[in-house]
Design goal:
318 residues; alpha+beta; Immunoglobulin-like; 5-stranded antiparallel beta sheet; 11 strands; disordered N terminus
């Protein structure tokens, strides 16, 4: 087994652009991003041999020029606008269930292939808690098409909605739409101050993977999965003292095929005076292949919180 911890995490706009191309999943998208490719336009500028060499030398990922040539052809189609509704790449008779569902949706009036993104934004609400427990908020907005990014103090919607509409340049009068009136009304409603119990942050610090050698009487190979997570904020100690229940799930995403499997899960309770935890689980070794691990830590009702962690990528070899 090989764990690849050297590939960077993906900005959302890069992930959306690269994974439009059939055959590029999270693993290969991260490798391409590491060598400076952020979207189809960048990819279209490479030759198969040059890109194969760059991936191997700069990202440690081996892939044949023949396979890369298909990626480049798709990228050129996307950037030239020739890959449009009804001309999606043929996935063949052996397409998986998810692909079959996508083909079925094309017959619908709301088929994804019939729509294209006119304007896209990513919206982020960030918070910071000082040593006195006071929480401060700001709002970040990223415009996909231009790459522009702006930050607004607080979370009221009027300022950032205006910025979004200004950059979207929609071909109709948004101000006359009923929705804008609802947004304007909501912008005047102040957010209520959260209580100390609500001001708890849940974070996954690390996920580690190792081999477990078969024990006597068992021929099965296993993986050991170690998850570290932490509670922070003014209400963390109180939540631990209440012994709130939590659940950890670890999923494996096949980077070459759109399939996901649940490797392991465990349910337990927080312990008084503990705010940092390490959970160790064992699971059966998955089939041969590349997998990106996705870990979810949930605090169960009535103390709902969730933390999500992507990585590492593991390769299961004979």
């Amino acid at each position: 087994m090989m764990v690849d911890e050297n590939l960077p995490s993906l900005p959302s706009h890069v992930s959306r652009g690269l994974t439009l191309i059939k055959g590029i999943g999270p693993f290969y998208a991260r490798a391409l991003y590491k060598i400076g490719i952020e979207g189809p336009a960048d990819l279209a500028g490479f030759t198969p041999d040059r890109l194969s060499t760059a991936l191997l030398e700069e990202a440690g990922v081996s892939i044949t020029p023949a396979r890369i040539e298909d990626w480049i052809n798709q990228a050129k189609q996307l950037t030239s606008g020739s890959l449009t509704a009804g001309s999606a790449p043929d996935r063949g008779a052996g397409a998986d269930t998810a692909s079959a569902r996508a083909v079925t949706l094309q017959d619908s009036a709301f088929a994804p292939a019939d729509w294209h993104q006119y304007a896209g934004v990513s919206l982020f609400f960030d918070s910071m808690t000082d040593q006195h427990g006071k929480q401060t908020w700001h709002t970040r907005v990223y415009h996909d098409e231009s790459g522009a990014e702006v930050m607004f103090e607080g979370t009221q919607a009027d300022a950032w909605v205006e910025w979004i509409l200004d950059h979207a340049r929609l071909p109709f009068d948004w101000a006359g739409d009923r929705v804008s009136a609802a947004i304007a009304a909501s912008a005047t409603e102040p957010l209520s101050e959260p209580s100390a119990e609500e001001m708890v942050q849940l974070d996954v610090l690390d996920v580690r993977v190792s081999d477990v050698h078969p024990s006597a009487g068992s021929a099965a190979n296993k993986l050991a999965l170690e998850v570290q997570f932490r509670l922070s904020g003014p209400g963390a100690a109180a939540l631990a003292s209440a012994q709130a229940a939590y659940r950890i799930e670890i999923h494996a995403v096949d980077v070459l095929h759109p399939t996901t499997s649940l490797l392991s899960f465990v349910t337990d309770r927080l312990q008084p005076q503990w705010v940092e935890y390490t959970s160790r689980q064992e699971c059966l070794m998955p089939d041969l292949g590349h997998y990106e691990l996705h870990c979810i830590v949930l605090l169960l009702p009535p103390n709902e919180r969730v933390a999500y962690h992507v990585g590492p990528v593991v390769e299961i070899v004979p």
